[in-house]
Amino acid sequence: IGLSISGFGCKILFSECTSQFNADDHLYAKHYKDIASVIVAIIFKMIVAGILAPKEARDIAIDLIAKLFTEVEAAFTQFAAGNLYGDDGVETRIARAKSLLADCEAQSPKTEPKLQVVPGMRADFKKNLYDVALAQVRLMLSDLDMLMLAQRGRMVQTAVVRDREIVTVTMACEATEETEHHHEKTVHEILTASEEWGTLEQDLKDTLAKVFRVCSIVLQHATEVPMAADDIEALKSTANLHVLDGVREFYAAVNADPVWQDSGAKEAGIRSVPQMRRVRILVSINALVLATQHSAEIAAACFQNMIYF
C-alpha cells in the first residue's frame, strides 16, 4: 500500500499547481480507488479471520507445548512416586509426551511470522524460543528413557541367522522376570530411601515447574508491554539453576552405606556392566542431572527472548 501511494502520488506532489482541469486527473482518481479497495479488503479479511478462524497457528502451538510440558513434568513426578508402569505411570507419560512432541514439531513451521499476510496488533511469535524448548524437551525425554532403562535393566536385541532366516532374539540382563523385578525394585528403593533423595526430588520438581511456566508466559506474550509475573521474578532470583541440589551428598551417603562396601565382590561374577546396580544408580542420577541442565537451557532461551521484562 505504501509503495502504491508513493508511486501514484509523487507526480502530483512535485507538479506545478494549476487551476485548469487536467484530463489525466481521472486516472489518478482510479489509482486511489484501487488503494482504498485494497485497504478495505485487508480490513475485511482481518474481521472475517478473527470471527471464523478457530485459532491462529501460534495459539495452537502454545496449547500443544503446554500439554507437552505437563506430560514431561508428570513423568518425573510419577517416577519419584514409584509409579513406573500402568495407565498413569512413567512409561505411559513418556509415550504421550513423544506423541505431543511430534505434534509440536509439525506445528512449528506454521508459526513462522513471515507467513502472516496480516500480522495484526500482536507482536511476532517467538519461534526461536519455541524451537529451542522443543529441542531441550526431546533431550529430556531421552533422559527419561535412560532413567527407565536403568530401573528395568538391560534388554538386548540381537539379530541371528537360523535356518537361513534372520531372527531377532531378546535377552534380559537378569535370568528371570522375578529376578528382574527384584532388581528393578531394589534400584528404585536405593534412590528413594536415601536421605538426600528429598532434596534431589524437590529441586528438580521446582526447576521444571518454574522453567515450564515462564516459557509458557513468554510464548504467550504478544505485546511490547513489560512482562510482569511472579514466576519470572522467582526464576530471575534462582541461583545455579543448572545444578541439581544434593547430588554430591547422595553419592557420599550411598558410598558410605555398609551394603556397598562389599558390593564389588558380590558383583564380581557379573560380566555385563549394565547389569551392575551401582552403574544403574549412577545412570539414574545422571539422567536427573541432565534433565536439570536441559531445563536451564530453556530458561536461558526465555531470557534471551524477553526484550521487555
Percentage beta strand:
5-15%
Query: What structural category do the secondary elements indicate?
Result: mainly alpha
Distance N terminus to C terminus? 34 Å
Shape: elongated
| Count of strand segments | 2
Question: Can you give keywords for this protein?
Answer:
11 helices, two-stranded antiparallel ribbon, mainly alpha, 309 residues, 2 strands, elongated
Task: Characterise the protein shown here.
The protein is mainly alpha-helical and 309 residues long. The protein is built from eleven helices and two strands, in the order αααααββαααααα. It has helices at 2-13, 25-52, 57-81, 90-107, 127-152, 177-193, 197-220, 230-236, 247-256, 263-266, 277-304; strands spanning 155-162, 165-172. A two-stranded antiparallel sheet has the order 1-2. A hairpin with a 2-residue loop joins strand 1 (155-162) and strand 2 (165-172). Helix 1 (2-13) runs antiparallel to helix 2 (25-52), helix 3 (57-81) packs parallel to helix 5 and helix 5 packs antiparallel against helix 11 (277-304).
